[in-house]
Write a structure and sequence with these properties.
Blueprint (H helix, E strand, L loop, with lengths): L2 H4 L7 H27 L4 H18 L11 E2 L5 E2 L19 E3 L3 E8 L12 H18 L5 E9 L6 E13 L2 E10 L2 E11 L2 H8 L13
Antiparallel strand pairs: 1-2, 3-4, 4-6, 5-8, 6-7, 7-8
The structure holds Palmitoyl-CoA.
Palmitoyl-CoA (PKZ) binds next to helix 4, strand 5, strand 8 and helix 5.
Family: Belongs to the THEM4/THEM5 thioesterase family.
Pfam families: 4HBT
Membrane topology: Peripheral membrane protein
């Protein structure tokens, strides 16, 4: 992660952020519905050609002004950050399911969420890579919530049973910690119980350690996803 991107700061007020969220949240939901419809629509091919022309016109309208690269994480002076482009939780990312993750300072994280057709691997089942994506994020949240943020060094998943598309829950917690390393564990729970279990090692990266050593940061903040 480039340090410059990681420490992108902003001065927007709570009111300005809330006003933007009130518009872009529903907009992203609409694009998410479009992704789902792209997979499941049974309209005839002429209808699809006509829809494509409309979508291309909308894309042209939106790309008249845009930032270079990804959204990054925008931090505020109180240490909170918004990761609106994030692939799992991003308010502006229609690829994100999205998850709304609750955290506890003891180092726990959980989310109830739904995965539909865009996340399919085997028929009717969630893609294994998507399960890994979600567990990476939720375990990372648990580490961060416990005041021990880090980049994923390793992530091991045990797929215990198939995960059906539909309503699911993810849970994670800090298992143990040693210096700059934090081990978190977690699981996905489906209608018939746990479907996948994970263990991840999260490491406070060298660039962050150097910032702390230089006194530019008091500790392993900011709070990335609050
Ligand atoms: C103040 C700001 C805080 C910043 C906090 C950033 C948080 C950011 C958001 C979190 C978000 C979470 C939810 C999404 C999580 C992703 O999706 S993160 C994306 C996927 N992961 C990556 O891209 C990580 C890529 N790798 C790296 O950036 C670096 O290799 C790492 C993992 C940060 C380590 O780099 P480093 O700090 O330079 O490591 P280094 O000093 O060489 O080694 C330190 C120790 O770690 C061990 N180690 C290094 N790499 C590994 C590894 N891959 N496996 C096992 N051990 C390793 C070394 O052996 C060494 O151990 P000791 O000899 O001290 O016992």
């Amino acid at each position: 992660m480039a340090e410059a991107r990681a420490f992108h700061t902003e001065t927007a007020t709570d009111e300005e952020i809330a006003a933007e969220a009130a518009v872009v949240g529903p907009f992203t939901d609409a694009v998410r519905a479009l992704v789902d419809a792209t997979i499941r629509s049974t309209v005839d091919l002429d209808e699809i050609r006509a829809a494509q022309a409309e979508i291309e016109a909308i894309t042209e309208r939106l790309t008249k002004e845009q930032i270079p690269g990804g959204y990054g994480v925008r931090y505020r002076t109180d240490g909170t950050g918004r990761a609106w482009g994030n692939a799992v939780i991003g308010l502006r990312n229609p690829i994100a399911p999205p998850l709304t993750i609750s955290t506890e300072p003891s180092g726990r994280a959980s989310a109830d969420f739904r995965l539909g057709a865009p996340y399919e691997g085997p028929p009717g089942l969630v893609h294994g890579g998507v399960i890994s994506l979600i567990l990476d994020q939720v375990l990372g949240h648990a580490a961060g919530a416990g005041g021990r943020p880090g980049m994923t060094g390793t992530l091991t998943i045990r797929y215990r049973q198939a995960t059906p598309l539909g309503e699911l829950r993810a849970e994670a917690w800090i298992d143990r910690a040693e210096g700059i390393k934090t081990w978190a564990k977690g699981r996905i729970i489906g209608p018939d119980g746990p479907t996948a279990e994970a263990e991840g090692l999260f490491i406070l990266p060298r660039w962050a350690r150097e910032r702390i050593a230089r006194g530019e940061s008091k500790g392993p903040s900011p709070k990335y996803f609050e």
